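Design a sequence for this backbone.
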């Protein structure tokens, strides 16, 4: 049975969900896989999943490199810094995704003889009821569901990245307060990093 340290598991989680978040942010610029940048709403333009996913990937890579090398103090310090940045960015990504779900997508809609281009939450009712109105977006077609799936993906990935970053930062903060440094390779009374967890 292979054992995995908490650093290795958390680093891998940050890399995986960071990449998912980056792709989610990129796909948001292409509504229903088409190139129509005029339908990119405010939540897409700030590209929160892209930059937050990038922070998580960098933190995850640094954690894995520091855990494998276990000699360079600067890698642990950089991991700690990017972990804190990821903790700060994840709630922003979570909040933007919730507001974006409530507003609905920005598209050309047609409803009861009225047509226009706006957020569906403003056109119909706020918050936008996804199940009551199956296909209001006429351009791009079925954009409601594409938008909803991407925002749910952003919610989930931001929550996982927040928890993983928080676990690393708490563990490294405890080590810093207890021993005065972040280097996991130095043993203090039997303390040499995290205990391995079995899969």
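Sequence:
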């Amino acid at each position: 049975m292979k054992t995995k340290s908490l650093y290795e598991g958390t680093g891998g989680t940050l890399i995986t969900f960071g990449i998912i978040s980056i792709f989610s942010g990129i796909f948001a610029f292409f509504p229903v896989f088409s190139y129509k940048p005029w339908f990119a709403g405010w939540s897409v333009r700030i590209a929160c999943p892209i930059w937050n996913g990038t922070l998580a990937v960098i933190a995850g890579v640094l954690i894995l490199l520091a855990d494998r090398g276990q000699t360079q103090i600067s890698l642990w310090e950089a991991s700690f810094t990017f972990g804190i940045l990821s903790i700060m960015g994840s709630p922003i990504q979570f909040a933007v995704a919730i507001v974006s779900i409530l507003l609905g997508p920005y598209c050309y809609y047609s409803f009861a003889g009225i047509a226009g281009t706006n957020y569906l939450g403003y056109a119909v009712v706020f918050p936008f009821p996804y199940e009551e109105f199956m296909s209001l977006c006429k351009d791009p077609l079925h954009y409601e569901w594409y938008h909803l799936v991407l925002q749910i993906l952003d919610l989930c990935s931001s929550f996982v990245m927040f928890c993983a970053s928080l676990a690393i930062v708490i563990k490294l903060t405890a080590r810093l307060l207890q021993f005065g440094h972040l280097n996991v390779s130095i043993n203090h009374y039997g303390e040499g990093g995290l205990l391995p967890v079995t899969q």
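Residues 12 and 60 are 6 Å apart (CA to CA).
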